[in-house]
Amino acid sequence: MLALRYRISTFAFAVAVFLPSLGQPIAAQQHLSAPRADGQSTPLMLYLPAKPRTGCAPLAVISHGAGGSENGYRYLAQAMAHLGYTTVVMGHAESGLAALRADMLRYGIMEGVTELVADPNAEKARLLDTGAALQWANDRCRAPFRVLLGHSMGAETVMLEAGAKNIIGVASPPAGQDRFDAYVALSPEGPGVVFDGDAWSGIRKPMLILTGTRDQSLKGGPQTRLVPWHVLPGGIFQCQWMGVIDDATHMNFAGDGLGSDKVEPLVTQTIAAFLPGARKHACTLPSALSGMTLQAK
């Protein structure tokens, strides 16, 4: 049944990938491009802080999942801007829509997703995109606090940037540079495809992991997405949290009309509770939120 539910969920994702969007165009404040270290360019969608401020605002960089683009994750970007962050959503050309379509047509739905997620060249390019986004931001104003957020393959990028060991041959650099002050991983993959069972033991920065009780993984069921948090070393000043949202599926975290109206508020509320403590290295769990369990270590 787990495999069947995963196939159904993945089929729904494939329909969303292959059919044109039926929704309204996504409005963002500015579409930009940043030069990458290898001579390529990284598209960025910029969201400015909701309220003007003096001095340099904190920075949020968002990494989309396989098949996504800088036009997605509007709910997350707008929430970060509302919290006062200069926010950029990166576009990852080597693991965007065209790359996912090609792998699905060649290997099939599940196998195509797995092929892209485990592609070391695609992940190296994502980390170069991350460096481009950081350099673009630094050239304008060096933020006092920087957070990297990602969903699905974007959560893989988050983990690799933070220092998780991988089994697909992505060396450091570009992996393991740990250039952010905190990390948020939505639906991170557990061991088996990209990471081994001990991959996250060296991550000591603040880390928030969010998943759902129906969040199927590429290898194993929803329980495998809990493994990264259990392996994180924790510690009183580490601020390493895990939230599990009741009945949430993998694509619910992607936003943009994919059945996420109940999930999005829990995601953004938890991030809003996590980041102030992460900035002070003094994290205290908030009062229980209805519809999810939240733990700290």
Automatic annotation (TrEMBL):
Entry's Gene Ontology BP terms: lipid catabolic process
Signal peptide: 1-23
Annotated GO MF terms: 1-alkyl-2-acetylglycerophosphocholine esterase activity
Keyword Hydrolase: yes
SUPFAM superfamilies according to UniProt: alpha/beta-Hydrolases
Record Gene3D superfamilies: alpha/beta hydrolase
Designated name of the protein: Serine aminopeptidase S33 domain-containing protein
Organism: Candidatus Sulfuritelmatomonas gaucii
